[in-house]
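User: Hi! I have a protein structure encoded as tokens and I'd like to know what sequence might fold into it. I'm fairly new to this, so please keep things simple.
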């Protein structure tokens, strides 16, 4: 009996030792990755910052080519569109957007709106970077805000938020992601979200901002979190509108207990509505994240069709604006109608026009591949212990975690707000709420 207990005890200690070594090895590997990224960023030379006019890239001829192709498009046969089992983007939606783009949309409006901001370009590492830079008042110059968008988006996403923040006196820096909008595709592979975080940090230092606020959604939230992790001395506070999904013990525990006893773990009606019952939550995640796997493995295969065909662009990228702006409707067509209403047909067409004229639908999707094969381990082990964090939760967001589960990544959560409407693109469909959350968070830090 004693020998048996000794053997079991020895086996347990051996397993603990192996787990410790594996974690230690992973920790060293991650730290080496971070050190390598930061060392490379330190070697980048500073490049001249030059003014940029969007009108030189948003050309009427390119947009006319888009509308000409839409007018000559092959009309998809009227296949049966089921009421509650989506096959993908409905033909009625594709035709509605195509018709609006060709008959009603004012392309000059995109230029007019974007040209109210000051645009610049500079080269950082392997990135020919575009960014908006609006200088605020002297009183609030000490808290510049970097706004980071994600996919499939552009700086257009902030066209309502920037004037509101500038009016309050804040300095705004809003870069276009590499391969998105007016930032050209990187000249080399390997430009991952972590590399982008280093480049954005370098940009802020180059502009003279040693300490700043970072705000992001989608990839912007991931890049901002990576920047905060690697350069905590520079980030005053981090505000995200998309919470991170990191499978830790808190998420597993909450999921298991919440599936049976929701009232024990979900403290608000919003949490309960989104996370319970479990099968509905799982189905929603499965449907909304199918694209992630495709773009992580085969981004170029899908990209060719979108660069060459505006119908393909509407069907894939254009559908994200709708799907991520609505949630939980009984019928497919009802869901799409609501999504279009929330995001707005003009915003859909404006983003699609930018993607088409800049020919970067393909390059924009490569961020998924770069992340999956290069940054996944770094991000999945991300912990931010000290920098203050705020998270805004919108009911139609594609990822939703409770505050309890969020502590797996963020140890210093200062603000955790829920809102009654809004989705993945909250700067579009609930501008006042997201700007209000951001400014109230900054005031708390002061």
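Assistant: Happy to help. Inverse folding works backwards from shape to sequence: for each of the 446 positions I chose a residue that suits the local structure. Here it is:
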């Amino acid at each position: 009996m004693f020998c048996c207990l000794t053997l079991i005890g020895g086996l347990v200690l051996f397993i603990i030792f192996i787990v410790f070594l594996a974690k230690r090895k992973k920790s060293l590997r991650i730290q080496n990755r971070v050190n390598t990224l930061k060392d490379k960023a330190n070697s980048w030379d500073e490049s001249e910052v030059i003014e940029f006019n969007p009108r030189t890239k948003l050309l009427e001829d390119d947009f006319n080519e888009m509308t000409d192709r839409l007018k000559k498009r092959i009309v998809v046969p009227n296949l049966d569109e089921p009421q509650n089992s989506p096959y993908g983007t409905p033909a009625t939606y594709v035709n509605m957007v195509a018709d609006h783009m060709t008959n009603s949309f004012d392309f000059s409006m995109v230029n007019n709106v974007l040209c109210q901001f000051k645009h610049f370009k500079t080269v950082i590492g392997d990135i020919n970077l575009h960014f908006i830079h609006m200088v605020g008042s002297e009183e609030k110059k000490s808290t510049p805000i970097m706004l980071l968008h994600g996919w499939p988006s552009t700086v257009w996403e902030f066209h309502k938020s920037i004037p509101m923040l500038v009016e309050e006196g804040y300095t705004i820096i809003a870069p276009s992601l590499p391969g998105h909008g007016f930032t050209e595709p990187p000249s080399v592979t390997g430009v991952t979200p972590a590399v982008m975080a280093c480049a954005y940090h370098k940009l802020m230092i180059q502009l003279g901002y040693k300490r700043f606020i970072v705000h992001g959604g989608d990839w912007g939230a991931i890049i901002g979190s990576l920047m905060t992790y690697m350069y905590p001395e520079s980030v005053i506070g981090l505000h995200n509108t998309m919470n991170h999904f990191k499978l830790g013990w808190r998420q597993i525990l909450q999921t298991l207990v919440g599936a049976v006893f929701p009232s024990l773990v979900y403290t608000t009606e919003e949490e309960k509505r989104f996370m319970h019952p479990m099968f509905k939550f799982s189905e929603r995640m499965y449907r909304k994240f199918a694209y992630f796997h495709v773009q992580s493995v085969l981004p170029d295969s899908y990209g060719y069709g979108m660069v060459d065909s505006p119908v393909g662009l509407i069907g894939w990228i254009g559908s994200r604006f709708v799907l991520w702006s609505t949630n939980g409707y009984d019928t497919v067509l009802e869901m799409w109608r609501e999504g279009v209403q929330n995001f707005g047909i003009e915003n859909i067409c404006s983003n699609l026009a930018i993607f088409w004229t800049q020919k970067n639908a393909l390059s924009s999707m490569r961020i998924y591949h770069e992340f999956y094969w290069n940054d996944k381990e770094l991000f999945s082990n991300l912990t931010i212990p000290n920098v203050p964090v705020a998270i805004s939760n919108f009911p139609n967001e594609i990822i939703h975690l409770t505050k309890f589960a969020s502590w797996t990544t963020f140890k210093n959560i200062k603000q955790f707000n829920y809102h009654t409407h809004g989705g993945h693109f909250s700067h579009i469909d609930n501008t006042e709420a997201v700007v209000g959350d951001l400014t109230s968070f900054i005031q708390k830090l002061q």
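A useful reference point when you look it over: The longest helix spans residues 2-43. Feel free to ask if any position seems puzzling.
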